[in-house]
């Protein structure tokens, strides 16, 4: 379909331009079709406790093809041991893909220094973004920032793509990533930008630096309390969550404080797109509160994990928006995962109680949990 539309016209469309009065162009800001809020689901979705830990704080989870839970253990949250781990039959984390790739004595280029995001594709390929930066406020280790491709069937690393040093700025932090259409899209949460890596050629481009859609404009609040950095100032986290549609066409993302934007990946994969076109490309998709995760479900429904109230919302393909559950157990619902059979796995990460977001003091209340919601059986909204 896109091949049939001239590139220049596609750019005008994506940039929010409308043809009018014959040949004149009127610049129009992109805007989302209004969503229709529905009353909260009643009764709310049921949370099933599927895993817990009294030693490790998890901020992201995926379900491997064999059914095991793979969790990410951010260094900055005070974790020791592996940065990426699979939970064994007893619920204990075991290094993934193996101990060598989690060995702190190994060179930074050939180990997982500080995993920041992960994406499991339908064919069993696992993509991991390694920030290479145990402390988001510090400097990455030389050779540490990279993209890692793994085969979950053989449980081995297939290839790595180091991020070029000139892709990062002083203060950068590679925080989130999705892979689609032969490219990796990496969000810089420190100095807001989108880093695009063409995987076959390893051509890397830093785009959209300081674009408003990637930039935090308000505090992160959890139960009415503002998250603060170790210096006691308001914590600022730029683009930190994203997911991509099943066909790879649409990238959904947000600075941690919200809101969620939608961007056509045509704009990111085309090297001839101009900075102005990229600046005007994102569409405000929904004015969400601070989110710990964005997840695209099997039917295209978006699930938003609201850290401010411990809630999960769904934005359905017909743009009906509904809260499906609020529960005190969902303290900072973080990076979740939706299975093909309609199960949503959500870690309650308590990240606002970790030192970087709690004025320098770690106040996690153990244990932390992973919950499961059967989204496949949720009834349709009632108005």
From TrEMBL:
Which UniProt key words apply to this protein?
Answer: Secreted, Signal
- The domain of life is Bacteria
Q: Where in the cell is it found?
A: Secreted
Keyword match Secreted:
yes
Read off the InterPro entries from this record.
6-blade_b-propeller_TolB-like, MRJP/yellow-related
Q: Which GO terms describe its cellular component?
A: extracellular region
Which SUPFAM superfamilies does its entry note? Calcium-dependent phosphotriesterase
Signal peptide coordinates = 1-34
The name under which this protein is listed is Gluconolactonase
Q: What species is given as this protein's source?
A: Komagataeibacter nataicola
